């Protein structure tokens, strides 16, 4: 009897793991990598510290280009996501140029805030809803 319960328990655990694996959203590593740079530049700029943004503007542009060239996972709306990624790449290009041209902090704050808003559009509105 004890063996039957052990076997049923193992089958139940395996079933739960299979069901969980099928419902998990795919991980978009390029998104996660971009988010790391966005957080490291946006949040300090919010508080008036523009040194990280000035130091990492070119890296932010590089990682958004890598993200833009990666395939869109199935849990995102492809057309909307690609359009938003194009806007984000355009915005990060502008930030990089502004940093190279020694733009003022007020200008940089607006630009990184706009980029941050576009990023949240992608991770929020571009995701497919559960059907």
Helical fraction: over 70%
Structural class comes to mainly alpha
Count helical runs: 5
- Tell me the distance between the termini: 41 Å
Largest sheet: number of strands, sense, barrel closure = none
The parts where pLDDT drops under 50 for at least 5 residues are: 5-9
Shape: elongated
Rg over CA atoms:
21 Å
Describe it for me?
The protein has 131 residues and is mainly alpha-helical. The protein has one domain. Helix content is 78%, strand content 0%.
Q: What is the strand and helix layout of this fold?
A:
Elements: H1 2-23, H2 29-46, H3 51-69, H4 78-100, H5 105-124
Helix pairs in contact: 2-3, 2-5, 3-4, 4-5
Essential attributes:
131 residues; mainly alpha; 78% helix; elongated
């Amino acid at each position: 009897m004890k063996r039957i319960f052990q076997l049923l328990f193992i089958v139940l655990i395996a079933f739960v793991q299979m069901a969980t694996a099928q419902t998990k959203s795919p991980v978009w590593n390029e998104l996660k990598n971009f988010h790391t740079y966005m957080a490291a530049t946006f949040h300090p700029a919010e508080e008036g510290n523009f040194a990280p943004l000035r130091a990492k503007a070119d890296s932010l542009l590089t990682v958004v280009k890598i993200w833009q060239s990666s395939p869109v996972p199935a849990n995102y709306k492809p057309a909307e996501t690609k359009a938003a990624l194009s806007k984000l790449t355009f915005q990060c290009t502008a930030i990089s140029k502004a940093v190279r041209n020694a733009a003022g902090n007020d200008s940089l704050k607006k630009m990184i805030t706009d980029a941050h808003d576009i990023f949240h559009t992608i991770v929020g509105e571009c995701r497919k809803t559960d059907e």
